[in-house]
């Protein structure tokens, strides 16, 4: 759980620098030595607020991983088994790069998708 939560926090901090966060973690039902559930509240330096929920307690298996960003000028939802699909992309102002979104989703049979090796290469040694 720690790897998933820290990974998501690092990604969110890359998008917009985090000023403060508060997290609660717990081992609720699994007989393991790490947390199986985490909730996090964020305050970004811009004043924006956000939250994240991560859990391993999905029956019978992982359904999907998603991130939804809702703003006053646009909304984005990344979802799918491994966060591999751009499910919603809508902004008040059109950008030429919006067309690239249509081909950015990909198919995978793994909850890890194809991004983990690239992620670990980039962030494994980077400071928070």
Q: Within the largest sheet, what's the order of strands?
A: 1-2-3
Count of all domains: 2
Number of helices: 3
- Using the alpha-carbon principal axes, give the shape: globular
Give the fraction of residues assigned to helices: 10-25%
Largest sheet: 3 strands, antiparallel
Mean pLDDT over all positions: 80
Oligomeric state: single chain
Coarse structural class: alpha+beta
- Unreliable sequence segments: none
Beta-strand level of the residues, as a percent range? 25-35%
Return the string of H and E elements.
HEEEEEEHH
Based on CA atoms alone, the radius of gyration comes out at 16 Å
Distance between the termini: 17 Å
Question: How does this structure look, described?
Answer:
By secondary structure, the protein is α+β, with helices and mostly antiparallel strands. The chain folds into two domains: 1-57; 63-116, no CATH class. It is 20% helix and 33% strand. It is built from three helices and six strands. The strands form two sheets. It has a three-stranded antiparallel sheet with strand order 1-2-3, covered by helices on one side. The chain has a three-stranded antiparallel sheet with strand order 4-5-6, with no helix packed on it. A hairpin with a 2-residue loop joins strand 4 (67-71) and strand 5. The longest helix is centred in the first third of the chain and has 14 residues, at 2-15. The protein is globular. The protein starts with a helix and ends in a 5-residue tail after the last helix. The model has no long low-confidence stretch (mean pLDDT 80).
